[in-house]
Task: inverse folding
């Protein structure tokens, strides 16, 4: 178990991630064509969703499963709430709301990397954790939108205490997006929807579906993940260059918060009596930040926030941290406590 | 050939369907869209998130009459105000066929 | 066999088609990048052509095979002929010619779905049916071009009975495209040619080729088909929105004609004594309409026809009808008659 | 810098090779093509058939002299008449190098 | 609306990052790039090597003041001289928002 | 062994290459979307590099391996040197330098086709040949840049014997690119770097990595190679049309030089006592010309050379020659000498 950090790094997919970092670091012109990268991202969602659905059909929705899902949803509410409180005074409040949503939500690739870690170490995990992942997206976004509209109202009130209601109404028409619209946007977001769809299809077709799909969704999975992580490495290194103006506080937040969120998740899992495998996945869901769904929605729901900020934090700092250090670190803590 | 106005827009790719709907309402039905136009403007660099494509711009070109051009400008201004982008208007000759 | 309709729908690939319909229906921004979708379409042609060629090399060209191919070519002449007669009075004659070509030709994905249906139900079919599919493309297109030039001449004669020959010559130079040019265009069309090429390569390399190609062309086939049908679902739903102005007659044609064409094909197969599996494939070839090759050629050969019309009919109505209802329906009829 | 005409065409992507051959014949050898330009015009929406790409437009830009521009216009007009598309002509300054 | 200059460049796709850096140095930060612009010019046909993409051009558009346009022209001229490409300058109206 | 030429051609991947030639020859609109073709090219580099790395980890770096690598590097210096001498008087000297670099460097797909040929004929080869391939890229490019700067200086001196140094300095600032810059460009070139990276990752992860990656990098390899060679066939035929103005000397060079270079390589291998399999690979590395990495660098390092010339020679003439005739020809010579 001591070796798990190094072992984790010897996986071909992880090594391709490092190679991507290196290639972009020395300013190579290496590039995965964008439509391929986008397709691989869809592929991973289909594969992970389908696999989760099949597993869920086999195991059914047990009490532990429900507990794990409940814990995940609780984390999706807690993380943005305390993140916003921490960020509020130190950065502009719209950015704070968007960052809160980013960290309340999840990174599917971090989740996948954690699953790969567990498989490599022979630790079981349940298909219901994919359901948990799916359900963590929306609460975080709702929280953030509510926070942003709170900020908006307060600002409006400060600017024009006398004009009052009229100004607020006016601002609503130009900036305020109704929660209903945002929820529609969040639910119909392609990445999110594809994950749900694949989960449902995996659940319906079960083992019969698994058998015909396996060569595509399971056997070549590792190779495609390797290519995808190569691209992620290139992106992370290039985004790092763009993010010099983040400032030490936000950089620190992006590196320390994952550990805080993972700790809270592990504590919660301990209380609920979850298994070690599910606990690692829960920790990684809590620790990771979104760089696909949340930016897609915040751009529209909180246009005042600077996408460069929350996108850089989650992609250039939190993602590599979790992939390289976070996963084995969280698991070594879990192994210690769970007495594995 | 007849003189027309050429309106060129660079806007958030996600905003294009909405924008085209607005234009339809004021009777502008014809247009050309080039989907991938990366760039940099007031809102910083627009590229690099290949997965969600959130930072993609599109380039929209519309050949129209001067009156229509003025209407288009009025229609797109609030969209540009909210989500960024640029709009240029210039002169051209349309080849009748 | 009663359950075949529902069973048919429980296939993961078909479920992804429904999911695509649903996602586009709720206006999700889900999208398969266009180069990927285009590649998958080429992939399916290669896989199906190669498989057919290998099967043909194994079985040889038997009498039944020749009979089946002959029946297919007959259908490719009959369908456009009677379709044009039905359509003539009720829609503009150029559209009528293009629609006739559309329904005389075939949809490779419908053919693939029918093969999948047979495989799932343990029913055999021959490699020669792929040859039949290949040979159905051209006759339909030739018919349509001849019909269109007939229409063109008649119109010309009506417009200027006195000017006569000169006007016709003039019209020919501007609109009329020589049959030779159209045949060249039809034969060199990428999709059509790739299917032929793969068929020939499969035939030449036989079992040895099959073995080395199988992981790519056979094992991951189902997964790629699932992604492709997801994209088809998205396209169908989006095209449905564009096709509100089709009118009840053309919509009815797009939904009823497949059943008529399939019935004629089944009757013909019965007379010729074809096996049940081959009969279903023949029925599906007759029942399906082209949305790749024919539009690519009609755009050029019958520029007077509105592509939106024939494209919408075959993509937005006939394709989903065959995939969801047609295939199991035709097969239940065949099973009844063939006494399976 | 010298004044030139900028000819811009939006045509059926499949027609582009043919069009460029025609232009070659009248001595216009230099051009720039952007392949994917979706749009809507008299012939309805041009998008949505990803497989055959039949409905794709291309955008073609040619910087040339006024005489050449006139020739180009005469050459493309029948093509536009038959298969649709648009052609705009405007003024620009060419940076000599 | 305010009058601006529209600078359009077609250059070697690989040269674009370098070019944008040069422009940054003279204070031109805003631009739009359309990546795939195939073409033909003095250096022959620019297409057909899909693997290295060496022969790809990019199209760059910059809306700027007249002074900036003059500076841009001076900056890009040596690059165009060495690696080919074209640069056009024209007039447009910028829609303020 | 007599049949090896025909046998070689009956491989599905090679047949798809011919089919591509045919399709472009009859001016079909068949086209693999560019991002897919580019990705497949990256895929092949990853697969071949990874495989070589794994093989190297298993065998270790033996004396024969070092000898083979040394022979390859020697060829990478010899080929550009004598090629330049041959070309100098007969073509413009910048083109000569660029062509020299092209033939000193290698074509990874020719290397892959040679490996496939060996596998089909049951002949072994070592993972170190992939290292040899990687190491052949740079020497050729360095040679060419040195040659080009020599030419540049000489021309400068001839043009302005009186002005002298100043003119040279001036020319250097506008045209001359420092060797350091070129080496950086060569090393960081995406294709080159990806090959190295995959080799290293294969070496590190060894058999464990091979097992998880095999379905992606090995099993579906043949199918992707077939698609890639289809695209190569299309490209070759289209490039042939562009290269009518090459002239008989350069065409002859592109067809005869591969045989000369292969002969030198075979002689060298004989002297060093290499095995037959490794010898064929060495011969193919020597005989093939680059159409990816070298054009990417010469465009920048020798902008005076006409890319159309060296690109056409290596892609439209040398590549198909090696694939179709060269590989079986070289091997029949090797088999004769090695007494197989
Ligand atoms: N001056 C300019 N010239 C050309 N393109 C511009 C200019 N300003 C903005 N853009 C384009 O418009 C997009 C949105 O601009 P902005 O909303 O200012 O960030 C940018 O990403 C650029 O693609
Ligand atoms: N007024 C216009 N402004 C911009 N693009 C146009 C206009 N009219 C037509 N187009 C483009 O030209 C293509 C062909 O036009 P059409 O032949 O009229 O259908 C359309 O799909 C558009 O991309
Ligand atoms: N007259 C022109 N009109 C439009 N595009 C041009 C023109 N000349 C050159 N180009 C574009 O600029 C690129 C480089 O030109 P060159 O350096 O002259 O080969 C070409 O590949 C074309 O895309
Ligand atoms: Na999280
Ligand atoms: Na049919
Ligand atoms: Na060589």
Result:
């Amino acid at each position: 178990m001591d070796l798990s950090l190094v072992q984790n790094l010897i996986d071909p997919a992880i090594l391709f991630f490092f190679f991507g970092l290196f290639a972009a670091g020395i300013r190579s012109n290496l590039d995965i064509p964008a439509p391929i990268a986008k397709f691989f991202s869809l592929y991973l969602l289909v594969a992970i969703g389908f696999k989760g659905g099949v597993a869920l059909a086999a195991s059914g929705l047990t009490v532990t499963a429900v507990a794990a899902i409940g814990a995940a949803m609780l984390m999706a509410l807690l993380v943005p709430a305390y993140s916003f409180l921490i960020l509020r005074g130190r950065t502009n409040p719209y950015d704070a709301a968007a960052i809160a949503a980013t960290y309340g939500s999840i990174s599917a690739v971090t989740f996948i990397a954690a699953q790969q870690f567990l498989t490599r170490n022979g630790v079981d995990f349940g298909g219901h954790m994919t359901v948990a992942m799916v359900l963590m997206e929306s609460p975080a976004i709702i929280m953030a939108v509510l926070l942003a509209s709170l900020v908006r109202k307060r600002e409006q009130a400060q600017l024009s205490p006398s004009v009052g209601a009229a100004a607020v109404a006016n601002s609503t028409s130009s900036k305020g997006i109704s929660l209903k619209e945002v929820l529609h946007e969040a639910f119909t977001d392609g990445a999110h929807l594809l994950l749900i769809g694949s989960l449902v299809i995996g659940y319906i077709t079960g083992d019969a579906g698994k058998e015909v799909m396996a060569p595509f969704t399971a056997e070549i999975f590792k190779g495609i993940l390797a290519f995808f992580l190569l691209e992620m490495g290139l992106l992370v290194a290039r985004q790092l260059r763009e993010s010099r103006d983040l400032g030490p506080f936000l950089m620190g937040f992006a590196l320390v918060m994952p550990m805080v969120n993972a700790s809270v998740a592990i504590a919660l899992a301990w209380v609920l009596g979850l298994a070690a495998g599910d606990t690692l996945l829960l920790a990684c869901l809590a620790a990771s930040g979104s760089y696909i769904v949340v930016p897609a929605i915040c751009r529209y729901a909180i246009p005042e926030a600077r996408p460069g900020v929350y996108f850089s934090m989650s992609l250039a700092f939190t993602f590599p941290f979790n992939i390289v250090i976070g996963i084995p670190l969280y698991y070594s803590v879990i192994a210690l406590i769970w007495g594995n | 050939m007849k003189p027309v106005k050429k309106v060129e827009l660079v806007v958030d790719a996600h905003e294009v369907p909405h924008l085209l709907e607005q234009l339809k309402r004021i009777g502008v039905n014809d247009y050309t869209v080039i989907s991938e136009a990366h760039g940099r403007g007031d809102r910083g660099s627009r590229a690099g998130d290949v997965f969600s494509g959130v930072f993609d711009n599109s380039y929209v070109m519309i050949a129209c009459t001067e009156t229509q051009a003025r209407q288009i400008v009025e229609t797109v201004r609030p969209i540009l105000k909210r989500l960024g982008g640029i709009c240029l208007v210039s002169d051209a000759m349309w080849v009748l066929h």
Observations:
- The pocket of adenosine monophosphate (ligand 3) is lined by residues D 30-32, 61-64; E 10, 37, 39-43, 46, 57, 84-86 (CB under 6 Å).
- The interface with chain B takes residues 34, 37-38, 41, 174-175, 191, 231, 235, 238-239, 242, 291-293, 295-296, 299-300, 303, 306-308, 311, 315 of chain A (CB under 8 Å).
- The CA atoms of residues 17 and 232 of chain A lie 7 Å apart.
- Chain A is about 80% helix and 0% strand.
